[in-house]
Write a structure and sequence with these properties.
2 domains, alpha/beta
């Protein structure tokens, strides 16, 4: 049972009760929360449980409301999972190179970090993951599709990870809307130790409102909700997300354009001298290995074109990570690389 991996004192905690917990209906006079009574769009506290938004997400994702956590970006969910899971010996395990926030969240909470490095081709090393579990780690973060490599792991590979790791496995699917393979959400019914993260920051174009999702077993989600700040998702965020979610056709159109541009950018990059390798990507970015990466990075920056230099990441020596932008933006980065390489 997944309960054994959750800190006992957290399971016993009673969360703070807000005015909006004690009354959830509709009234004409609200004098229970010490709010300013003069009406503006935001003079009232937001729903601390994001009920309307969760109901819509539940319908779209096919996951029960009780299995959904909403937070201030996926970073809040990552931080809460580090705090919730009992990791007395082996700490948190990551599969590097990967998203840096997992390591930061662990460090911020005084939790040690162990590494199960990816293989040179950026595939998973299942035996390394098994070894981390045998050393006592009870929380594993797995980014799929992975940042910065662009690699997506199949459901079969994720099942192998679940079999090898005797703890909670968090699959971060920030880029899943750009991927061809199905989401790990389909595995939630098989594994109560699985938590899936998704976000509105990428395909939905809502990075500025900071809204992330976590899907998992009720005891895990309840524990996260117990620890979160009472009003962790603002009224403005909830309202904007509801408006944007009413436009799925627009999001799907933008994703198709990004994927089309990604194919074009990859094709153009492979024609450039000085490009050593363009790695396969299931995301809205490409990782490209070039000669003189730092020189290329600085040259682009001088032209007002900003990419990420990932050369210091494990296995990414000489690599730039290039987000797929608009056609004009993509042309600008390609032109700059032609000039400098």
């Amino acid at each position: 049972m997944v309960n054994q991996f959750i800190k006992a004192y957290i399971q016993a905690l009673v969360p703070y009760s807000t005015a909006r917990d004690e009354f959830t209906g509709v009234a004409s006079v609200y004098l229970d929360a010490n709010e300013n009574p003069y009406q503006t769009p935001v003079n009232r506290y937001p729903d601390p449980h994001q009920r309307q938004l969760k109901a819509l997400i539940s319908e779209r994702k096919g996951v029960a409301v009780e299995n959904i956590f909403l937070g201030n970006g996926s970073d809040e969910a990552i931080d809460l999972l580090v705090r919730v899971v009992d990791t007395p010996q082996g700490g948190v395990t990551i599969t590097s190179p990967t998203y840096g926030m997992y390591k930061v969240a662990a460090a911020n909470n005084g939790v040690s970090v162990g590494d199960a490095p990816l293989r040179p081709d950026f595939s998973l090393d299942i035996e390394a993951i098994r070894g981390a579990s045998e050393k006592g780690s009870r929380l594993l973060f797995l980014c799929s599709p992975n940042n910065p490599t662009g690699t997506q792991y199949t459901l079969g590979e994720i099942k192998s990870v679940m079999d090898a790791f005797a703890g909670i496995v968090v699959v971060d699917e920030a880029y899943i809307d750009f991927a061809q393979a199905p989401s790990a959400l389909t595995l939630l019914g098989e594994y109560d130790r699985l938590v899936v993260l998704q976000t509105f920051s990428k395909a939905w174009g809502m990075a500025g409102i900071r809204l992330g999702m976590a899907f998992g077993a009720k005891v895990v989600i309840d524990s996260m909700n117990t620890l979160k700040l009472p009003y962790n998702v603002s009224e403005l965020t909830q309202r904007y997300a509801l408006e944007r979610l009413a436009e799925p056709v627009r999001m799907e159109s933008e994703v198709r354009e990004i994927l089309s541009e990604r194919a074009r950018v990859v094709s153009e990059l492979r024609r450039l001298s000085g490009v050593v390798e363009v790695f396969p990507s299931e995301t809205n970015f490409v990782l490209v290995k070039v000669t003189q990466a730092w020189r290329a990075f600085e040259y682009l920056q001088g032209k007002g074109v900003i990419v990420r230099d990932r050369s210091k990441e494990r296995g990414c020596d000489g690599c730039l990570r290039i987000t797929i932008g608009t056609p004009a933006e993509n042309n600008a980065v390609l032109e700059g690389l032609r000039e400098v390489l």
